[in-house]
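quick one
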Amino acid sequence: MRLQNRLNAVVYDTVIIGAGLSGLAAGIRLAYYEKKVCVVEKHYTIGGLNSFYRLRKRDHDVGLHAVTNYAAPGTKTGPLSKLLRQLRLRWEDFALCPQIESSVVFPGHTLRFNNEFEFFRSQVEQEFPSQKDGFNRLVERINSHDELHLTNETASARAVLNETLSDQVLIDMLFCPLMFYGSPTPHDMDFSQFVIMFKSIFEEGFARPARGVRLIMKNLVNHFRKLGGELRLKSGVQKILSENGHATGVLLDNGDVIEAKNVLSSAGIAETLRLSDCPAPLQAENPPGAISFVETIFSLDCQPADLGHRQTIVFYNDADPFHYEPPTDPCDLRSGIVCSPNNFQYGEGDEIEEGRIRITALADPKYWEPLSDDAYYPAKDDWCARIAAAAVKHIPDFRKHVVDTDMFTPRTITKFTSHLNGAVYGAPKKVRDGRTHLDNLFICGTDQGFLGIIGSMLSGISMANLHLLK
Ligand SMILES: Cc1cc2nc3c(=O)[nH]c(=O)nc-3n(C[C@H](O)[C@H](O)[C@H](O)COP(=O)(O)OP(=O)(O)OC[C@H]3O[C@@H](n4cnc5c(N)ncnc54)[C@H](O)[C@@H]3O)c2cc1C
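structure w/ flavin-adenine dinucleotide:
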């Protein structure tokens, strides 16, 4: 260790690895209670999986289709209002505009939904009349489940759905959006995770800030800094330092040492264990996830609504049954998500000027990550075109209107977030209580188990409250 770089002998209360949503939310909570806290981020900018960038004079979001868990401003209950209260933020700081309408489209069946759950219930009754009672029993079971309890045992959501519903198409149609927006495991989900996603998507719903995720990220960082928090960008952690089962700080890639009484990591459980010289058997018990995606972003010379496309998000699947797993091909063309950032209920003057269509498809990290640059860029062009061709079976054909295209792959995700395999929803085995083999090293974010935009912030808050504000 290069002790000559030990930074001014400051000892922080907590050093947080990662300036994504969970790390920044935890940082705000700690700084509010006057803890000396430093967030270190490997990348040159904030946001992690939910960052933003500018390309050819266009602003893009990395990981925002929609903010889930929508609640109207002033609502007193639910995850969003809890989050704002805990972080001392105002509703205007997120400026959320609700979705118009979304749908799940399978062969022979379409389920539409908006931010009113009774509309979705009526859709299920209309498309699957024989499943009405079973669906109502499932909803009761979901609403009586305490999904956030940190000691919940892992349980199969498919088993629960099979107890209440008999139509496999309906079961898959319920799984499809919930898996696409939050399952680290193929085929099935942990029931608590299913409940989190069901409530956040079908019961609460989607929204988006008119200016995208920039607004949320910048408000988080400004708030954190105003409270006295320190943020260091381009500061990758190469090692978590420890003595006798106790973390003492972090060693950065540039040789600097930051000493701290606690370390909170949002880098992922497998990634964090690797950074902390954890014994090999424990590392083997916590493998990284394998579910990753490609995301294609098409800029159009018209609004999607001009082509007749007014839906906010379309989850489509052509296969019987639905498959959610790392594909054997570079991308899975049988299913995907089409999101149009234009199709939200923006206030007057807030509409996005340029038309955008984003399409997400499952992708195989083992194909994308090792490609040489010579093979990578042509492969991107090829699969981008194939994905668009697959999606236009479900939405109006927008391809003649494309004026610019960007695409990112599992390789991009690994490069900019350091998540192994570009695994968007992290490891299959979550660490709900956030504890690790070191008594003061904790996990927050995706691999603690609350994920997505709102979930990861709640994770940072919960872990800060539970372990670092006692
Ligand atoms: C394409 C895509 C679409 C998505 N769409 C949605 C959506 O519509 N709605 C929604 O709710 N969610 C969506 N998500 C998911 C959501 O973005 C994530 O769940 C959330 O951002 C995770 O936040 P986090 O803080 O847990 O992790 P991360 O954002 O991964 O933050 C971890 C941070 O740690 C940093 N880091 C890692 N290793 C080190 C190290 N050694 N040293 C220093 N720093 C390190 C990383 O660079 C990163 O910034 C999407 C994600 C993707 C990729």
